[in-house]
Write a structure and sequence with these properties.
Layout (H helix, E strand, L loop, with lengths): L5 E5 L3 E3 L5 H14 L1 E2 L4 E5 L5 E6 L1 H9 L4 E6 L6 E4 L1 E5 L3 H8 L6 E6 H9 L5 E4 L5 E6 L4 H16 L3 E5 L4 H4 L8 E4 L5 H9 L9 E4 L9 E2 H5 L4 H17 L16
Parallel strand pairs: 2-5, 4-6
Antiparallel strand pairs: 1-6, 3-15, 4-5, 7-14, 8-12, 8-13, 9-11, 10-11, 10-13
Helix pairs in contact: 1-2
Length: about 270
């Protein structure tokens, strides 16, 4: 049976590439504390010198919750970044009018807003000449957001952009940049904020320099993913050495396999209890 690469790593070696969402961290903290298990291991990839540091591809909120709980070690799934597909999430805006959204965006220093058609906006975004664009009607018009400066400065403005509408709207993730398509799933959507697609090298470079993207933009798709692991938090929180914890994990996984508690789904799976 092919199994994911599960390891226990010191929490200080796990470097996030995106900001955390406090609205998700607090419920996660309460759930982990109440259930006393880590259900889904964060996804990490090694970078730098050997396995001395890991970039967190998915699970920044879970790691933040465990930091608040004072957990010294985390159960993670280690992947080869070259084997991971990297896509982008866009943000469907609801419970906020387009006029209010654009008025808030115009107040961000260093951010220029201009109108154009959807095709031109997509081209500018692909060439990174635009920071993002907003699709906000049924026509091919788009509001294009541009910014000068270094990657750090541009990423900071991207964070300011997301902060602006997260403070006054409800945000849903979507893969479409067309408002008419998005409204099939979210009928009350007033706009779609469309982000550029990143490359793994860019994600690593941002993490190395301590610059984090907004939460909910990058989307990593793995060939094999561990879910519903339900590993005991008591082990992760204990004063056992890292080697002892890793030994316990190996025995625990072996027991799960021998007792037929592990199952692999090769088809796309839809979960309704997240």
């Amino acid at each position: 049976m092919q199994l994911p690469d599960l390891r226990i790593q010191p929490i200080e070696l796990l470097i996030p590439h995106e900001r955390t969402d406090p609205r998700r961290v607090n419920p996660l903290l309460a759930r982990i504390r109440d259930e006393a298990v880590l259900r889904n291991p964060p996804i990490v990839a090694p970078f730098g010198n050997g396995d001395k540091q890991f970039i967190v591809l998915d699970g920044a909120n879970r790691i933040a919750a465990m930091r608040l709980l004072g957990v010294p070690h985390v159960l993670v799934q280690v992947v080869d970044y070259s084997q991971v597909q990297l896509f982008v999430w866009h943000h469907a805006i609801t419970q906020c009018s387009v006029e209010e959204l654009l008025a808030q965006i115009r107040r961000i220093p260093g951010l220029r807003l201009c109108e154009g058609d959807l095709t031109h906006a997509r081209a500018l975004l692909a060439r990174r000449e635009a920071l993002a664009f907003i699709s906000c009607d049924h026509t091919h018009r788009a509001d294009i957001l541009c910014s000068d400066g270094s990657m750090r400065e541009r990423t900071e403005r991207l964070n300011q952009l997301v902060d602006v509408y997260e403070g006054c709207a409800r945000v849903q993730r979507t893969t479409s940049d067309s408002l008419s398509e998005v409204r099939r799933s979210f009928p009350d959507a007033s706009a779609v904020v469309v982000f550029p697609r990143y490359e793994p090298a860019e994600i690593i470079e941002l993490a190395r320099t301590g610059v984090m993207l907004p939460a909910g933009i990058t989307r990593h798709v793995l060939p094999l993913r561990a879910l519903r692991v339900n590993y005991p938090m008591a082990i992760l929180r204990s004063d056992m050495s890292l080697a002892q914890k890793q030994g316990h994990l190996s025995e625990w996984i072996h027991e799960c396999v021998m007792n037929r508690r592990v199952r692999t789904y090769v088809e796309p799976t839809v979960l309704f209890d997240e």
